[in-house]
Amino acid sequence: MMKKSVSFAEISPSEFFYRNRDLAGFSNPTRALYSATRELVENSLDACELIGVLPEIFIRITPLDKDEKQPDPKSYILKVQDNGPGVDPKYLPNAFGRVFFGSKFRLRQARGMFGMGGTMSILYGQITTNKPVKVISSTNDGKAYKFEMMIDIRENVPIILSKESIPTEGITGTSVEIALQGDFYRASSKLQEYFKQTAVVTPYANIVYLDAIGRIWYYERVTKLMTTPPIETLPHPYGIDVEALRRLLQDTSEETLSKFMYKNFHRVGENIARRFLEFSGFKEALNPKALTNQQIVSFVDALHRYDGFLKPDASCLSPINKEILEAGILKELKPEFIATSIRPPSAYSGFPFIVEVGVAYGGKILPPRLTLFRFANRIPLLYDEGNDISWKIINEDIDWRHYNVGTDAPVALITHVCSTKVPYKTVGKEYLADRPEIERELKNALREVLRQLQTYLSRKGSMAMVQRKIGIYNKYLPMIATFVTELSDVKKLPKYKSLLDKSEDKDENKIIDEKEDEPKIVTDDKKVILSENVLDYEKDGVNKSAKQTTIEDFK
Amino acid sequence: MYENMDNGIFPEIVIPSRSVKNLVYDEELEQYILGLSKVKRSSQNIKHIRPFTQLVWLAFFVNKLLKQGKTSTLRDVYYSAQAYNIDFKDQPESDDIITDLEAAFSRAREDFSIYPEERSAVFGDLTIEYTVKGYEGKRLNLASHPDGYLIGPSLSTCEFVETSAEMVIAVEKGGVFTRFVEEKVHERYNAIIIDTAGQPPRSTRYILKRLNKEMHLPVYILTDGDVYGEHIAMVIVAGSANAAHIRDLTVPTAKWIGVWGTDILKYKLPSIPLTDQDVKRIHELKKDPRYNKELWQRELDVFLKIRKKSELEAFAKYGLTAIVDKYLRDKLDEAKSF
């Protein structure tokens, strides 16, 4: 009998994502058009922010075939252009034509998680339309380079179809144009929502979006304040797993474990390294490369157990910040009241994070109900709201009555979690898992802004109350004056007008409840035991037919 | 008040508190009176200013009535207020303000020319002389019209001239009142008959009191055989807690002659079971100091024990006239003995 031969073939990362594109948000033409737009826009914003340039982003979606009668889904051309630093032509083909080639493996907050989103979009475009991607990029050397490329999916390498250079007169930036299958009709409202929410957290960007049916959406810059670009940091010991440690060990040139530690780990100095090694029983002088597999596992285990490491610092994070968040909320939601809460940095599993929350109330734009805008690393999260941790807190942990916010109140809550590693539940980056550390910070921040809203509402309520009271005095005092005048048998009304002024500056706390006015009762030993009910059936004319009735029936 | 307003001071009104907590049973008067608690209503207090204005308006309105010699009714007051933009939300609210005015002056509303809607009636040999405007000096015998006479403003203010009657019989309801007139109770028992129409209005109680005091007539009360009937009798005897601010409305010597719980057994009257509500009220009244007398407590206990109640009409079992021919005679005889 012949032995059956089984062949195993290695698959490239491109191939892997080609086969698993559903995971990355390209599951259908609607979602794919939305995801591709989003990935390219986020890359552009990241690029601008990294060098501190106020972003100018242009997005255009046009049908590939000009015959507009063809129904969706169909092929579209998506173009996203920015004024970022551009990509050096040496690296450009790999940056756009190869999955996993990106700068985002270091620890620094960025919108994209793996740096593959842009390439995924290109890959998706290629497999649905078989058209090349056109990338034009200009760094600062006076020339722009235009590439037309496709991706060799099996080999995970870019295939350059054409390359030319064009003079640019000093303008930098990148423009990416892909052809892809999409369903604009269905994706349109999501895209609008995406841009609107993006504008909320990037009010320092000019975003122009020309959609597939010729409408222009313009999100105007209202502030020149920008978020501080994050600083790259080393990984924190708590965030290290076996594979990460193995790679660090492979790359290191240090010859002792202690040196290896303080060169490669975030916030680990000589002292902490020494104390940790004592704690874990590894010798300081041990050559890192000499660790066995077994030792690597127990080293990682010790890293996670040791409680002497300093908390990760937050310089690698780039929160939105109060002024920018408020400017964005004001610009897009035009509410009558805004409050924000920026929580101090915290960490989960060695990953630092910051929670920022805003509340907007009233105005003409907000609908008469609660709206939740969720952001993670400044990306709007538009899908699967019901599974998100913020939603869970809002629904289960917040007692809305306590804050005097009714179900029909025009309230928007804006939650933002930024971290070097946002705990998404899925690769699709749509909702956050319930990490207790993050949950606690979100809860505190939500409560803080809601307390501010409550204060505002009660102040607003008491203003209305004062107005109403003035109205009441204006109504009754002249009546009293008239009746009293007739009772006193005089002609002239008393000079009661001064009372109207007095009533206006009355401190409302002075108003005593009518009940409180009733003095304590006098009775001595003659204890009265009388039910209020007795009074009811002593009313005149209470007889057989009326005996069972209440006061209401005597109207 | 005028001076206060003129001097920039918010006027205030102080009236005795009518809260249940301020009700005191006076052993000597044998009625409820108000305690010493007072309620201050200030025009400065946003929660007071509305009832304050209502009360001032009522004083103004009553002042007009008295000056012009007119009368009004509870309902009439409620509707008249609308003409002055005084917003009572319903009639009970306006009735309540009227009671406030009563309490403020310790006078009954009839003194302010405000009467309830007439319901109560009187019939029998009693000659009265009107004092109301336009009828001054006119006389009338109250046995002249077999439907009886409504006790309204003119009867409430009349003078009693003469009567041949030897007693007053107050009955709880119109049907029995009419039967009594038909059966000539006024002649057979030499009585003035009064229909209290349920809980008697104050003007009716006032007439009862005057007949008792001025004409020296004993008052007998006949009600349904239940806790409400017993309490109607009690209010005639000892006054209501509702009107604790008014004295001189009680007839302490009036006698409740039935229908007692014991009568239900004795006459084997058709009956219906007590409701939970009935039982609850019996327990409430048992604690009421007005009921601290042997007969009253005993009958409450009997009701509780037999768990039954009967109407006056139950005597129809023995024929339409049995209640007059047999029961009334029995009970009056019995009453004379206690």
Structure description:
The complex is a heterodimer of chains A (555) and B (338). Chain A has 555 residues and is α+β, with helices and mostly antiparallel strands. Chain A has helices spanning 13-19, 29-50, 92-97, 117-129, 184-201, 242-251, 257-264, 270-280, 293-305, 322-333, 389-397, 436-487, 497-504, 514-517, 532-536, and strands at residues 56-63, 74-82, 133-138, 143-152, 157-167, 173-182, 206-210, 216-219, 337-342, 346-348, 351-361, 370-376, 379-381, 411-419. Chain A has an eight-stranded mixed beta sheet with strand order 5-4-3-6-2-1-7-8. In chain A, strands 9, 10, 11, 12, 13 and 14 form a six-stranded mixed beta sheet that branches. In chain A, β3 (133-138) and β4 (143-152) form a beta hairpin. In chain A, α2 packs parallel to α5 and α5 (184-201) packs across α10. The radius of gyration of chain A is 34 Å and the shape is globular. In chain A, 38% of the residues are buried. Chain B is of the alpha/beta class. Chain B has 13 helices and 17 strands. Chain B has helices at 2-6, 49-68, 74-83, 91-105, 153-156, 174-182, 185-188, 202-214, 227-238, 261-266, 276-286, 294-306, 322-337; strands at residues 12-16, 23-26, 31-34, 38-42, 72-73, 114-115, 121-123, 126-129, 139-141, 149-150, 159-163, 167-171, 191-195, 219-222, 255-258, 272-273, 308-309. In chain B, the strands form six sheets. Chain B has a six-stranded mixed beta sheet, sandwiched between helices. Chain B is globular and about 75 Å long. The N and C termini of chain B lie far apart (54 Å). The mean pLDDT of chain B is 89. The interface between A and B is large, with 58 and 75 residues.
Q: Mind sketching the topology for me?
A:
The complex is a heterodimer of chains A (555) and B (338).
Chain A: H1 13-19, H2 29-50, E1 56-63, E2 74-82, H3 92-97, H4 117-129, E3 133-138, E4 143-152, E5 157-167, E6 173-182, H5 184-201, E7 206-210, E8 216-219, H6 242-251, H7 257-264, H8 270-280, H9 293-305, H10 322-333, E9 337-342, E10 346-348, E11 351-361, E12 370-376, E13 379-381, H11 389-397, E14 411-419, H12 436-487, H13 497-504, H14 514-517, H15 532-536
Parallel strand pairs in A: 1-7, 12-14
Antiparallel strand pairs in A: 1-2, 2-6, 3-4, 3-6, 4-5, 7-8, 9-11, 10-11, 11-14, 12-13
Chain B: H1 2-6, E1 12-16, E2 23-26, E3 31-34, E4 38-42, H2 49-68, E5 72-73, H3 74-83, H4 91-105, E6 114-115, E7 121-123, E8 126-129, E9 139-141, E10 149-150, H5 153-156, E11 159-163, E12 167-171, H6 174-182, H7 185-188, E13 191-195, H8 202-214, E14 219-222, H9 227-238, E15 255-258, H10 261-266, E16 272-273, H11 276-286, H12 294-306, E17 308-309, H13 322-337
Parallel strand pairs in B: 5-6, 12-13, 12-14, 14-15
Antiparallel strand pairs in B: 1-4, 2-3, 7-10, 7-13, 8-9, 8-11, 16-17
